[in-house]
Amino acid sequence: MDLTSGFEELFEDAPCGFLVTDADGAIRRANRTFLAMTGHRAEDLAGRARVQDLLPVGDRIFYETHFAPLLALQSSAREIAVDFRRAAGDRLPVLLNAVMKGDPGGPREIWICVFAATDRRSYERELLLARQRAEHSEKEARELAGILQASFIPPSLPRVDGLDLAGVYRPAGLGDEVGGDFYDMYETRDGWALVIGDVSGKGAEAAVVTSLARYTLRAAPAREPTPSAILASLHHAVVRERTDRFVTVAYAQVSLAPDGGCLLTLSLGGHPQPVHLTGAGASQVGRPGTLLGMLRRLRLSDVTVEVRPGESVVFFTDGVIEGRRDSELFGEDRMERVLLEARDESAATIADRLLQEVSAYQSGVLSDDVAIVVLKVPAAPVGPDQRDR
Amino acid sequence: MSVLVRNHVKVSGRPDGKPLVFAHGFGCDQNMWRLVAPAFEDAYKVVLFDYVGAGRSDLSAYSPERYSSLHGYAQDVLDICHELDLTEVSFVGHSVSSLIGVLAANAEPDRFADLVLVGPSPRYIDDDGYVGGFSAQDIEELLESLDSNYLGWSSQMAPVIMGNPERPELGEELANSFCRTDPDIAQRFARVTFLSDNRADLDKCRTRALVLQCANDVIAPEAVGRYVHAALPGSELVLMRATGHCPNLSAPEETIAAIKAFL
After folding, report:
1. How high is the ipTM of this complex?
2. For the domain B3-123+197-262, what is the CATH code?
3. Of A65-74, A129-138, A307-316, which one has max mean pLDDT?
4. GO MF terms on file (chain A) (predicted)?
5. In CATH, what number does A159-387 get?
6. Domains of chain B: which residue ranges?
7. pLDDT tens string A170-191
């Protein structure tokens, strides 16, 4: 076989286009495959056109700002996606691989391989569009989750004379799923009700149960005499819903005492015991009861707690104590330490401090939703005229 | 985070020399000056850097608000000058960096002695009576082109691209790494670059300036170079033999000679 003519034929009829250009892109030679791909004539290219001239303007800028610098910096560039303008006026999507031959300072030329990539590029465009759509949907889902979640938590807790109240909530992870945590405070026949709860699981189904729990708890005090009876009615409502979700709730009936303190009548349905912060220390209050909406036999009780001026009760969801770092939990001891250090602060500061510690413990990304509500009886009674200062 | 790390600042040359700051344009990073900067190290304190969002800068420092106009990029230049306590600065800006240099010099005129503008364009899109060379449609096409060429970027690649000189085995994967960054940032930088109109800032510039204009530059055509020269009072214009938009890579000797003659 005649090597020279064999290589000549390989150059001309290779299964990809070949371009040989000067360092500035001026075309010296184009092979037959390239001419066939683009419909250009050899005499219109060699010595007359630069590669850039065959590109649409957007790609021309890309050529100058990326392709040419890459070739100069590393003598090669790979998988550069551009379109060639064909003689007929339409475009041919291609991928280019190129090498710069010759030494810096001496004569240099660029060898370019041109692969037609019509199908691949249109597929890539579809993928790109699909990704953009996915990103858009994800953003929407996050917004929806945020809006739905916000409806489970009052925008602000009511002002109750003689009480300092604060609630904080932070969703797990990136907050793109609706969590099951909720809290609420509202006026009832006998004073005020403070509830905090957690529906198992996440997403739309959990949101339905969270919603059910919130309106059931709001309506029940009109019919039921005690916090435990109110929780029992929620239990039955969840069971009737035939969901496999269950709910934990801490329900406190709050009555203000004439001497400035307040009385909580507390019932716990499977919920972690709130922490009572006094001058003597921190203690868990309420008697643990059964989860709501799951077990056949309910065990709920009412416990009365007296909260004196200067004292607080901290309600929280399990996302606080079960916050995870590697395999270790944030835990009750750590929570108690944080609360004791903060006990002389305002309700808002106590709540924020605990949230910050739990969040920092997990490097800022929570493994589970966290809700915290702090009820504090201020040491000196706070009147409405002082509060707005 | 220190500005020097944020902008991947490299200082070389004479510690007591007059400062010469080289700034890269849209597309790649400080490597664009690889063939030019060393020629100044014997006489100058040479400063190279990457804008936030380019090269080996700290991508987490990128903020869409700050970098929504060229002023944010000019602030990068000023931050570096402050951090290194540079005065009497000679600033060499390629492409969009020319105008970034003008903005920086306008903000702190006392800090800058000279500006070298390599392939400057104060506005890329044609306007009533002004020929920038592009239409708005062209710029949209560029953004699409960026999209198809940044397909290979992924968050796993990011830390690799951000700099692992101690892992040369990654080299093969990093075929186009000099000109790579987060595609979202590249898109935004492209928009800011090609949709800016800084013609009015030229009139305000009182810093001594050199315009280096290449032949056959599709990005900044000769007419634009002449416009910049006319708009900058007392500027010099050098029409180079080099072709294209990157004489710092394609004709380093000619570029070096022109800068030296001016300085």
Report:
1. 0.85
2. 3.40.50.1820
3. A307-316
4. phosphatase activity
5. 3.60.40.10
6. 3-123+197-262
7. 888 777 778 889 999 999 988 9
